Amino acid sequence: MKIRAIHVFEAGPLGSRVFDFKDDWSGEIATNILFSGPNGCGKSSALRAVAMLWGAFGHWLQHRKPLPKSSAEREWLQGWGGVALFLEDLPFDGPSMALLFGRQEFVEALEQQYPECSFVGEWVARTGRPGAPARKMLWPKDASWLDRWTESRQTMLVSADKSDSPNMIFLDAEERRWVPPRRGVGEIRQEDPQQRWLTSYRVSEQWEGQLEASLLAMKSAALHRFHDLIRDMNAFLSGKEILTEVKLGENRLRVKLKNGTGTTHSLDDLSAGEHQVLIQLYLVNRWMETGGVVLIDEPDLYLHPSLVSGFLARLERMVADRGGQLIITSHVPEVWSRYDALGKRILLEAAP
Questions:
Q1: What sequence ranges are listed for the domain AAA+ ATPase (predicted)?
Q2: Is the pLDDT score of 352 beyond 70?
């Protein structure tokens, strides 16, 4: 699956515009995309809008009706006039499709402009009654491929089996904080497959769901994959390495200093930049499905400049190996130059 374009309408600092991801030279949809621009221009909001629409799509597949009033996706999306994702290379022999949410005039204009496209989503129309707009669900007439997608998603959420459905990973910069666990430390728990559809990182003092707990669960369930991932992580640690041996009863991972003293410390004692590397490598390795889309807000956050290029190259390779699409934001000029040359860079201007 690939995002072909994003249409936004009266969308805060983004305004009303189209982000076209087709490569100007090859005519193909770009697989590595960068949003750059000054603070407050809407880079992070663009990524969050994509994630919110994908979360809403999960509801539409399962329930075939508009988002409920309590929905976080509805609360966030209705703050804009409209947003639409145009998707291609879909599973189950699906045609080109647009996921959308917005005002009636925005949706109807897109339907007229792209009559060959299948539309899934909902529009909102003012009725004159405050707080009670009319809502309409959009669903294709010939939707047998969406029925198959619904069944695949249902299986994905309750099983660890390989899925036929792509997914999305959204890693927000402000949410990728490292907090030492305080409760339930050392317990071995199976990871929750409910996060396979839309994976994110949520900071918590609870051991369950923390990166270290997840790595230990992987060690128990998929030892070869665990060793490969630790090797990837160690490549970005300077003068130290994460040990793969775990002391029974302690059930914690240790980091060994390569200074000949044998000194070790916990993952909690790594630097902020090292924590960022571990979080991102783990979540992409563990949760990205074939054909998935990975959205990372400032993947270079806290990283030493010498690590940025190599780390991005590793993320790009991981996503490419699974036939996916990587969309990031960055304030780093080196990253701008990289995506000018090797991907597609979209420069946003500051809000007037």
A1: 29-352
A2: no
Query: Is 127 inside any structural domain?
Result: yes
* Beta-carbon count within 10 A of 134 CB: 12
pLDDT at 117 over 90: yes
| Length of the chain (residues) | 352
Mark whether 146 and 224 lie in a shared domain: no
pLDDT tier at 25 (50, 70, 90 boundaries)? confident
Q: The domain containing residue 27 runs over which residues? A: 2-167
User: At residue 178, what are phi and psi to the nearest 5 degrees?
Assistant: -100, 125
251 vs 80: CA distance, rounded Å: 47
Backbone angles phi, psi at 256, to 5 degrees: -105, 130
C-alpha separations of 124 from 66, 99, 138 in Å: 10, 14, 11
For residues 91 and 110, the answer to whether their CB atoms sit within 8 Å is: no
Residue 174 lies in a domain: no
Angle between helix 211-221 and 223-234 (nearest 10): 140
Answer yes or no: is pLDDT of 323 > 70.
yes
As given in the structure block, the two tokens for residue 98 are: 């647009």
Judge whether residue 32 has pLDDT over 80.
Answer: yes
Rounded to whole angstroms, how far apart are CA atoms 220 and 190? 10
Out of 151, 167, 183, pick the residue that ends a domain. Answer: 167
Structural domain total, the chain: 2
- Distance in angstroms (rounded) separating the CA atoms of residues 118 and 109: 14
Domain boundary among 269, 291, 321: 269
Q: Residue 34's closest CA among 338, 351, 350? A: 338
Are residues 107 and 229 part of one domain?
Answer: no
Nearest to 78 by CA among 31, 140, 9: 9
Going by C-alpha positions, the residue among 165, 99, 112, 106 that lies closest to residue 138 is 99
Give the chain's mean pLDDT.
94
* Residue 228 and residue 235 in contact, taking contact as beta carbons nearer than 8 Å: no
Task: Say whether both 158 and 69 belong to one domain.
Answer: yes
Question: What one-character DSSP code corresponds to residue 184?
Answer: S
Residues 215 and 163 in one domain: no
* 149/222 same-domain check: no
**Residue 159, in any domain of the structure:** yes
Q: Token pair of 337, please?
A: 């130059």
